[in-house]
Input
Amino acid sequence: MRIDIITALPKLLESPFGDSILKRAIQRGLVEVHVHDLKDYGLGKHRQIDDYQFGGGAGMVMMIEPIFNCIENLKKERDYDEIIYMTPDGKRFDQRIANHLSLKGNLMILCGHYKGIDQRIRDQIITMEISIGDYVLSGGELAAAVVSDSIIRLIPGVLNDESSALFDSFQDDLLAPPVYTRPAEFNGWKVPEILTTGNFPKIDDWRHDQAIKRTEERRPDLLED
Ligand code: ADE
Output
């Protein structure tokens, strides 16, 4: 898989891809992540990328030409399965969308800023708009990192224990059960005895019951469908 991210603030994306699981996935060649600085496509000697909005009103709008030129440049090299715009008024991101996107070959993600981008880019070029939740961030970069992380960890070979992504919360519309590690007793607080018996079928049953209980308590909406 390859992910191209277009941003006016490329530095914001250095750390999410420079550590831990994502870094290892990139080093092992399981995914390529390329961050493109929109200012490289800015207009004039000030490399302008935003302008006042038609009709008046506060806040700058990201201009059509730099974004268009950057996207066209990337499209010359390869076809993209989706050209995604990160925006609070997009489709709410969830595990189902992450699963769907993890099967794609080439993704492009555009990060918005200020008042957003010229609507003509959204109408003509963007194929998918994603929000990571009902709140407004300063820009789309952190949202793009969230989406990329959730996709990349699903690529086979990225997690050491490949099966572990299958047991994540939300994969079967259930939250994950509680987990414990050594010591078996601390401060008089004991781990559930079943987990120390070695009876794996029973442990599986217990975990499933716990997942249902936790989902009923915390996210009953997940059980409704
Ligand atoms: N940009 C600003 N806020 C956002 C959000 N909630 N989701 C995606 N992109 C955003």
About this structure: Residues 81 and 106 are 6 Å apart (CA to CA). Residues 86-88, 112, 131-133, 135-137, 140, 143 surround adenine (CB under 6 Å). Helices lie at 14-17, 20-27, 64-77, 95-102, 119-124, 141-152, 200-218. The beta strands are 2-7, 32-37, 50-52, 60-62, 82-92, 106-111, 128-131, 185-186, 189-190.
